[in-house]
Amino acid sequence: MFASSLDVESAFYAAFERGDLDAMMRVWAYSFDIVCVHPSGPRLEGVDAVRRSWQHILSDPVPRSFDLRARLVVGSDDVRVHTLEEHICVPGSQLYAPPLLATNVYQRLDDGWRMIVHHASLMPAPGSAPPTANGALH
Amino acid sequence: MFASSLDVESAFYAAFERGDLDAMMRVWAYSFDIVCVHPSGPRLEGVDAVRRSWQHILSDPVPRSFDLRARLVVGSDDVRVHTLEEHICVPGSQLYAPPLLATNVYQRLDDGWRMIVHHASLMPAPGSAPPTANGALH
């Protein structure tokens, strides 16, 4: 049982670092109503699709270490929305991953707090132009 | 007063289509605790930063039309999380914008339902490789 949204989030990134699929799936609500968007990936819905995606990602044996920054928490007593920066490195290597912005949503359910949404996307490069400067419509 | 998260969402995209900054800001909670991530943009926090970003985006007079698809709603009685596809076109033109995935979070407050988080990011191109196939760490 996770006692808070922060506890779930810690377990999420710990499972990710360890490449532990079972621990990763214990973080999520067991429901059709979960949503996961990996960076530049499609929206995945429900436990089966979300589990398959993590199985694929965690099957890569590269050791990851997460430096989480700038966490902001909003929401209510039973649904908490965390936004934060994920800075990922591979210990002992120069392997570089671009930093990500994640929106993680947690809900208090009968069996404690669980993750219900993870949406991660690339952060802008430092000094890059504002979103509409290149003619984007949004 | 918005009576539901769906009402807020309709008003959000209507304001976006009309380029109506005041209507756009009436959709949002009036709070430091709002978060907005435009596609490939940084995380913006609080009414002032969020308003400035919309002022910038909506100052572009191009008429946008949103085709919203595949809305999924999760959450509780007082916080609703919508994920959906945004397909944007410019009526009468061939101007193309890549489709976006949005996570929109709404909360029931004393003055009705309001938006508290908008996180939009590019959808993958059809047939593109899965997230980790290019060596990404997430």
Distance between the termini of chain A: 40 Å
User: Would you identify the CATH architecture of chain A?
Assistant: Roll
Rg of chain A from C-alpha positions? 16 Å
- What is the CATH T-level topology of chain A? Nuclear Transport Factor 2, Chain: A
The whole-number mean of residue pLDDT values of chain A reads 91
Detail the poorly predicted runs of chain A.
none
Give the H and E element order of chain A. HHEEHEEEE
Q: Could you tell me the strand content of chain A as a percent range? A: 35-45%
Provide the domain count of chain A. Answer: 1
CATH class of chain A: Alpha Beta
The greatest interface here is:
A-B, 53 and 53 residues
- The coarse silhouette of chain A is globular
Largest sheet of chain A: 6 strands, mixed
Number of helices of chain A: 3
- By secondary-structure content and strand pairing, the structural class of chain A works out as alpha+beta
The oligomeric state is homodimer
How many runs of DSSP E, i.e. beta strands of chain A?
A: 6
Helix content of chain A: 10-25%
Strand order, main sheet of chain A: write it out.
2-1-6-5-4-3
